[in-house]
Amino acid sequence: MAVYSRAVAPSILSADFGHFADAVTEIEKAGAELIHIDIMDGNFVPNLTFGPKLVKDIRPITKLPLDVHMMVLHPESYIDELSEAGADMVTFHIEAGVHSDRTIQAIHRAGMRPGISIVPSSPVVLLEEVLEKVSLVLVMTVNPGFGGQGLVESCLKKITQLAEFRTRNSLDYSISIDGGASIDNRNLFWNAGADIIVSGSSFFKSKDKGEFVKTMKT
Ligand code: DX5
Ligand code: ZN
Predict the structure, then answer these.
(1) Which of 8, 11, 203 is the pocket-test mutation for ligand 1 (most atoms within 8 Å of CB)?
(2) 162-171: per-residue pLDDT in tens?
(3) Chain centroid offset of residue 125 CA
(4) Nearest to 69 by CA among 139, 127, 122
(5) Numbers of helices and strands, H then E, in the chain
(6) If both were cysteines, with which of 14, 123, 163, 187 could 200 make a disulfide (CB 3.0 to 4.6 Å apart)?
């Protein structure tokens, strides 16, 4: 059994970067389960965001788990810093390097929960050798790099494939989806078997964020 069920993880990528602390308070007050933190390096994806220092600065102001999504080449280089900063879960891309198994072990050793992610053009089969070693699988449902993009529908089948693989092999990773989620399309993800929906632009655009989270879960 996965740890999460119909959980919402707002992404601070869509927050006002001048007011991260307010965004964290809004996420907590809204009743979300996780805070999703998108680290981008301008190489793995064509955008730059922030690094472990933001994780460190947010850590003392919330009890929510910090779900760090590394869209970077050489994710192994940042593990110790993220652990010291107080990250709970560190997800990196299988496409970002060769030695994903070693990176997963290093995340475990650093006392964090490892997650693995795939971009829309990668098939689930690419993940099979590591699925028994991760706590989270993050299915990108847009091409990573930016908030506010439309869902790539061909990714939905991967959620179901991952849920079936989990049952078949008695595993317990959570399945999270990232990108293009909204109140209108939420059931495409839940029905496919997602446990967590990451939401950036639709969460931060919503007027009543508590209502948004409540509705997302239905
Ligand atoms: C995109 C990021 C996402 C992003 C999602 O590369 O990984 O976490 O914040 O944003 P929305 O929900 O606006 O698609
Ligand atoms: Zn993300």
Answers:
(1) 11
(2) 999 999 999 9
(3) 20
(4) 139
(5) 8, 8
(6) 14
Within 6 A (CB) of ligand 1 lie: 11, 13-14, 36, 38, 69, 142, 144-145, 147-149, 178-181, 198-202
Q: What is the DSSP letter of 167?
A: H
At 157, the amino acid letter reads K
Among the listed residues 194, 129, 136, 207, the one whose alpha carbon sits nearest the alpha carbon of residue 161: 194
CATH architecture under which domain 7-216 falls: Alpha-Beta Barrel (3.20)
Q: What's the full length of the chain, in residues? A: 218
Q: Which residue among the candidates 38, 67, 88, 195 is catalytic per the annotation?
A: 38
Q: Could you report the per-residue pLDDT of 27-59, keeping only the tens digit for each?
A: 999 999 999 999 999 999 999 999 999 999 999
The model's pTM is 0.98
Q: Are 73 and 50 contacting, i.e. CB atoms less than 8 angstroms apart?
A: no
